[in-house]
Amino acid sequence: MNNTTSNKRQSNDFFWPSYVDLMTSLFVVMLVLFVYSFKLFKDREGELKQANGELKVKAAELEQITKIRRSLQQLEGQYFKYDPANERHELLVPVQFKAGRDEIQDSYKPALLQAGRTLRSVLKNIKTDQPVRYLVIVEGMAARYPQGDPRNTHEEQTTYQLSYRRALNLLNLWKQNGLNFSQDRNIELIIGGSGFYGTGRYQGRREGDNKRFLIQVIPKVGRM
């Protein structure tokens, strides 16, 4: 009897410490998992808040750009026409260059000057809630010779330079008459030339109308 009691007592003496060790280990594991889960939750919560903040900023910028595009409709009229397919403005002054030349004839200069004044005035008077910088691209173009004319191939590369010089001459015309866009901190003007190429060209009988200028205004909203 005494032996049996002694054995039970020894079993209890081994069981309880083992049980306590097991429960302690489980508690430690659960505590680690809880801390890890809590950290993941807080990290995820921070990411969601950051993403939500970025979405609000993007939404505000998109709203601002939409307002600016509506304001740019003021350009449309005597000097500019909006091309919705290519999202840009075409200068309506019917400039005609002599073949292979980049000089702007005197008869077109008054209208080109007034177009430049209109462009600058509209951009300077647009009211915005956030800082805005306008990237203004003035693109010169060139018309191809009649179909089959070998000059279309021989002069293909040089027309890029030709159309660029035409855009440069327009910029110089504006500068010489007090329209220096580089003095406006919120306007960055870039000139380019597309030669015989570029999107939205006139085709067929209207090929000659490609001797023109295109104006593209790209608003950049946000911190500068």
From TrEMBL:
<keyword id="KW-0812">Transmembrane</keyword>
<keyword id="KW-0472">Membrane</keyword>
<dbReference type="InterPro" id="IPR036737">
    <property type="entry name" value="OmpA-like_sf"/>
</dbReference>
<keyword id="KW-1133">Transmembrane helix</keyword>
<feature type="transmembrane region" description="Helical">
    <location>
        <begin position="20"/>
        <end position="41"/>
    </location>
</feature>
<protein>
    <recommendedName>
        <fullName>OmpA family protein</fullName>
    </recommendedName>
</protein>
